[in-house]
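Field: COMPLEX_INPUT
Field: COMPONENT_COUNT = two
Field: RESIDUE_TOTAL = 395
Field: MODE = joint
Values follow.
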Amino acid sequence: MLSRLSFKTGVTFFRQDRLPLLRYQPSASLEMYRIEKNKIVKEVSVDDITKVAATEVTDLVPRPSPFDSPLRDHVNFPKPVRLERPSPTRMAMFPEEWFKFLYPKMGVTGPYTLGIGLILLLVNKEIYLIDDFEFRHTVAFYLWIYVFVKTPLGKLLQNFFLDNLESEQFRKFRLYNEEVRLEAIKHEKEEQWRQEGKQLLFDAKKENVGLQLEAMYRNNSMDLYQQVKRRLDYQVEVAKIDSRIKGQFMVNWVNEKVKESISKMSEKDNLKQCIANLNTLAAKA
Amino acid sequence: MVKITIGDYPPEYKPEVHGPYDPARYYGKPDTPFGQVKLCDLKSWFGRRNYNPRAIVQAVSRGYWRWQHKYTLVKYPNAVYIIQVVTVAQIIFYAINIGKKLCHRKAKYH
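Field: COMPLEX_OUTPUT
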């Protein structure tokens, strides 16, 4: 396109902004790490991924855990233990600790009295309003809880689940879950591997774009050289023709002038000279 | 300039003394538990509390993790934590919407 432009308008071609001045610089070196048996291997390659210029090997020393320090306070800060079952509650809601906390102050029935009294107070002062919608749903929700926690039906269901937690079916279900997760981990690893490949692809694409830029730059440089040479050749040719025409003109002019000077006046003199010459020749002979 | 850090361990936590970090634990200097405070000391006990928003957020976070360790992160969890969440949500949303409902008090017939 640049060459076409230059043919149409010779001036625009020489504008600096038409030329890509930025030259592509390939990356100087690449560092790659990999872990072998208790060793970290660092590979440094220059310009090319496939060629390794230097390798550095460092021994992997296991770092001491900060938790094994002699300063460790095992009495006040013991290792947290995961509970087998949830902490005990009453009415499937209120923690046992609250009742324990209130027992020395209010006795066994105290917390219940407090709770029921609080609800009655809220209802009495019309802070909790018994309306058509919310009250019904609240009561229904807690009735279902009562059914599942306290009634024989609920006990049956609870016992069914508790007894079968270690059964074959439940274990199968758990193993299935485990398999699904392991599969997901495998997929994730594969995706990570693909991402690494993508990085290589990006590098290759960058390299490619750089090469294209370089090719374009060289093409333009060549174009520029040729166009300049063409114009200079033209100038040389013009100068040559000019000098040739001038020379030709000079020769013609001198000839004409000589011829002019020969004619008319000098012809009589010549004749006289010739006659004189003849006379002298005749006298001698 | 005060450096504001979010997501860091509390400054009192030292791995070599306290072991692995437990988000439910308070690593500062312990005060008398609320359950053992005498009524006469209650005012000074509340005076000693830190009301910095940062400290409040930390306390709420510790409470949340304590609740999690007790009810949801156990080996065989039950429905208690769901019921607790629903109950607390009911109370909170009732408190939010109470302004719209209190006009019903003045209605003679519903």
